[in-house]
Design goal:
The complex is a heterodimer of chains A (196) and B (331).
Chain A: H1 15-21, H2 38-42, H3 53-61, H4 65-70, H5 73-76, H6 82-86, H7 93-106, H8 118-132, H9 137-148, H10 153-165, H11 179-192
Helix pairs in contact in A: 8-9
Chain B: E1 5-7, H1 10-14, H2 18-31, E2 35-37, H3 49-52, H4 54-69, E3 78-82, H5 85-100, H6 102-113, E4 124-128, H7 129-137, H8 139-144, E5 154-157, H9 180-187, E6 191-192, H10 206-209, H11 211-227, E7 232-235, H12 238-246, H13 248-255, E8 263-265, H14 266-273, H15 291-294
Parallel strand pairs in B: 1-2, 1-3, 3-4, 5-6, 5-7, 7-8
The structure holds iron/sulfur cluster (SF4) (2 copies).
């Protein structure tokens, strides 16, 4: 079948459309990016990112799926919303960064970014939330750092010990009363999202 | 002021930010703000759950909104208050997006139904503790409660990110240059510095992902406070407090600096001005001990930096133009 140049065949979505569709909430306006660069100029993590948000959005428009999902940029987004309030096109930049993180995990590309450990931090965090209903700092710190920075553990242990001495860290997690209810809700949400 | 708020403390306030919790309850009691904890609330997912799965993340947050909606409100408007900026953001964002997207609302509610719950977008008005204090209570009422003004204490008001940005409810309308915390601290008698990085980012969870990135962001905040000779930085979020306080020693090691700037919660500073003992409001749990700077508080307001007369130049100034005052009738 001959393709009309510039027209996406039926049933196939551009990468841009996929990213937009995977960003729930109101319209994220991603296709309206006019490449002004305000986002990158406002970004506290900008200097450590492989691509500024502006560059990343040009790459999304160009359909450079792999390069986008291997970029460390979403993982270096600290969720500060500076770009969001400054963007002249009201693009939901922070939410799009979250979408790209999810896609990078799903497709495994995150392993090739310079922030390859970041997803594990998030996953360890939510693991405690799913099992107790509350987050658990000591568990998170020990499990995540033992796995990824065993040598840095000493430094962390110093800080952790201080937290314990100051009474700022629990030794065991707190469990909510209706944990089964929460788990049923999360299970259903996963099913609806087709993740289970 | 609403006669009651559903209180969502969030995981940090349970332990790491216990001082924030204690001082919040102290201040609320003094100001007659009735707080009732959301029964069996769960974690808001912080900045982590949204990175893994979208719908479960919204459903996790929405369970709390549904529980708050289900509290006994006697038919009155429902208000919820969170002292943690990240919790506040997640709760208000979920409410906002559910209202904006019927599709999201329907899916979240389908998930909630599996636990016998339901949330109507817009049913609960989500506040951060700061706006409850400055808007609902008001500066005047706060000032009435001040028994020990903080004269002589120089403070840096630090808002961080999520309270004034993205501000879905248009509460502040000042994403980058807010002044309400400045005004609140001034009402307590403190000397408030014009903190140039008041809404800069503390680095959030980057301390765990890329320490170099995080330490640089923390350094900037400490440096600006030191440059302006602030005795303390006043924060309104457990993450900001932990990053600035817990990582201060590491910043010093990393950059060869020597900062010793205590980081207090705004509710602790209010408590001090209301006459609380440091213990009553959790002072002493910081890594950088705040007690020494509290000795700076004086009985009297500092003399407004005595205006120094500028030395006039020897040379005669230009002559003033002649004033024609005929139309006033005065001669
Ligand atoms: S600020 Fe908005 S419009 Fe400008 S480059 Fe960034 S995303 Fe695009
Ligand atoms: S929200 Fe993320 S991308 Fe936007 S300025 Fe902040 S760190 Fe950068």
């Amino acid at each position: 079948m001959a393709l009309d140049p510039g027209i996406v065949p039926e049933g196939r979505r551009t990468f841009m459309q996929e990213v937009i569709a995977a960003t729930p909430g109101g319209d994220p306006h991603l296709e309206l990016c006019l490449q002004c660069g305000t986002c990158g100029g406002s970004c506290p993590s900008g200097p450590d990112m492989d691509h500024t948000p502006r560059q990343l959005f040009a790459m999304i428009a160009a359909g450079m799926r792999e390069d986008v999902l291997k970029s460390n940029t979403p993982w270096f987004c600290v969720s500060c919303y500076y770009c969001v309030v400054r963007c002249p096109q009201e693009i939901h930049i922070t939410d799009i960064m979250y979408t790209l993180k999810r896609m990078a995990i799903e497709e495994g590309y995150y392993r090739e970014s310079s922030a390859a450990e970041a997803p594990d931090f998030s996953e360890t965090f939510i693991d405690f939330v799913e099992h107790y209903g509350r987050s658990f700092e000591l568990g998170l710190a020990t499990r995540y750092h033992l796995k990824h920075h065993p040598l840095g553990m000493l430094k962390m242990a110093g800080m952790g010990l201080n937290m314990l001495i100051k009474g700022r860290m629990d030794l065991k997690p707190t469990r909510i009363e209706h944990l089964d209810q929460l788990q049923a809700i999360l299970q259903k949400a996963k099913e609806l999202e087709g993740k289970d | 002021m609403p006669n009651r708020y559903a209180y969502y403390p969030g995981c940090s306030l349970e332990k790491n930010a216990r001082a924030y919790h204690i001082s919040t309850l102290y201040v609320a009691e003094k100001l007659g703000v009735a707080l009732e904890e959301v029964p069996d609330w769960n974690c808001c997912g912080a900045t982590e759950y949204f990175a893994i799965a979208a719908l479960p993340a919204y459903a996790l947050v929405a369970r709390n909104l549904a529980l708050a909606q289900g509290m006994d409100w006697n038919g009155g408007q429902r208000h919820l208050v969170a002292p943690c900026s990240a919790c506040f953001l997640n709760l208000s964002k979920t409410d906002h997006y559910m209202a904006d997207s019927p599709q999201l609302a329907a899916q979240v509610n389908e998930a909630l139904a599996a636990g016998g719950l339901h949330y109507d977008p817009g049913a609960v008005f989500v506040h951060h503790l700061l706006d409850v204090i400055v808007d609902d209570v008001g500066y005047e009422k706060v000032q009435e409660m001040v028994t020990k003004p903080l004269f002589g204490l120089r403070v840096a008001p630090y808002y961080g990110c999520l309270v004034t940005r993205p501000d879905y409810k248009h509460i502040h309308n000042e994403p980058e240059h807010p002044f309400c915390l400045d005004d609140l601290l001034a009402a307590l008698g403190a000397t408030v510095i014009d903190y140039p990085v008041k809404t800069a980012c503390c680095g959030g969870h980057m301390t765990q992902i890329s320490e170099d990135t995080a330490l640089e962001l923390i350094r900037r905040l400490l440096k600006a406070a030191a440059d302006y000779r602030a005795d303390a930085i006043v924060a309104l979020c457990p993450m900001c407090q932990l990053n600035l306080d817990g990582y201060q020693a590491q910043v010093n090691k990393h950059f060869g600096t020597d900062y010793h700037i205590p980081i207090l919660y705004f509710t602790q500073v209010m408590g001090l001005a209301f006459g609380a003992t440091p213990e009553e409001i959790g002072i002493g749990k910081e890594f950088v001990d705040a007690r020494p700077v509290l000795n700076k508080i004086q009985e009297k307001p500092p003399e407004e930096g005595k205006k120094r007369r500028k030395k006039r130049r020897d040379k005669q100034a230009l002559p003033m133009p002649e004033l024609l005052r005929t139309h006033t009738g005065r001669k």
